[in-house]
Amino acid sequence: MILTVSNPEHENALGVEMYAAGVEALSVAESSPEVRSVIITGAGGIFAAGTQMARLQANRHAAPHVGADAVEGLHSWIEAIRTFPKPVIAAVEGAAADAGFSLALACDFIVAAENAVFSMARIGVALSPDGGATWSLSRALPRQLVTEMLLTGERMAAARLHALGVVNRLTPAGSALAEALSLAVKLNGQAPNAIASIKELVNDAAHASFSEHLASERDHFVRTLHHANAGKGIEAFLARQVPRYE
């Protein structure tokens, strides 16, 4: 499934309607066996900008719960991506700014074109980040780099984030979606139940003690070992064939 952020008049700025549509699309994709992975990209050579400034200004003059509800909508989509049992790939061209950057960080993979730029510039208008940006960046980068990015609001090139391990694959401009599709084809050939187990283990690793996580790995391993897909995979390996998982 390819989800395209499209709000060309405002550089693909995100909004509450998109949040709800994103959550709904993932719900459909999760229940559909035909969907093995999801790609999120942006229309018109731009991934996604943050919330429109006019909307933020309007929220300043509304009751506090209005702004809180809007952020909760974004966070519902971000959390849906993080807990989604299938791979989610961000295909980034152009700018991924503020909530758009948070959206990319929530994905399992980031494929970025060489012309892509990432920024968390809320500090420039005296606002703090949302969308899980501080959580994601703090787990991906050293503290000094995170504070540099968040407190200066400066843009960071895709090449630098690739060197730092945040971006998985760097492509020529205009090729991010094609490369993401190529990656998706490879992931789609893996066993869906094993992918779900691996994603769950990675998500839980930061919150568990080492002994707790070893126990969780044991339970997931036994569960995947006794799944029909393991039988297919082992038999195909022994026969030197390509397995077909369900």
What does this structure look like?
The protein is an alpha/beta fold and 246 residues long. It folds into two domains: 2-188, 2-enoyl-CoA Hydratase, Chain A, domain 1 (Alpha-Beta Complex); 192-238, Lyase 2-enoyl-coa Hydratase, Chain  A, domain 2 (Orthogonal Bundle). Helices cover 53% and strands 12% of the residues. The chain has helices at residues 16-31, 53-60, 64-83, 99-106, 133-140, 143-152, 158-163, 176-188, 192-205, 210-225, 228-238, and strands at 2-5, 38-42, 88-92, 95-97, 109-113, 117-119, 156-157, 169-171. It has a five-stranded parallel beta sheet with strand order 1-2-3-5-8, with helices on both faces. Helix 1 packs parallel to helix 3 and helix 3 (64-83) runs parallel beside helix 4 (99-106). The two termini are 17 Å apart. The model has no long low-confidence stretch (mean pLDDT 95).
Précis, in short:
By secondary structure, the chain is α/β, with parallel strands linked by helices. It is 53% helix and 12% strand.
Summary tags:
246 residues, 12% strand, Lyase 2-enoyl-coa Hydratase, Chain  A, domain 2, 2-enoyl-CoA Hydratase, Chain A, domain 1, three-stranded mixed β-sheet, globular, alpha/beta, single chain, five-stranded parallel β-sheet
CATH-level-2 architecture of the largest domain: Alpha-Beta Complex
Number of domains: 2
CATH topology name of the largest domain, in short, is 2-enoyl-CoA Hydratase, Chain A, domain 1
Read across the widest sheet, the strand sequence of neighbours is: 1-2-3-5-8
Query: How can the largest sheet be summarized?
Result: 5 strands, parallel
Q: End-to-end span in angstroms?
A: 17 Å
Low-confidence stretches: none
Mind telling me the CATH superfamily name of the largest domain?
Answer: 2-enoyl-CoA Hydratase, Chain A, domain 1
Number of helices: 11
What general form does the structure show? globular
Structural class: alpha/beta
Helix content: 40-55%
Strand content: 5-15%
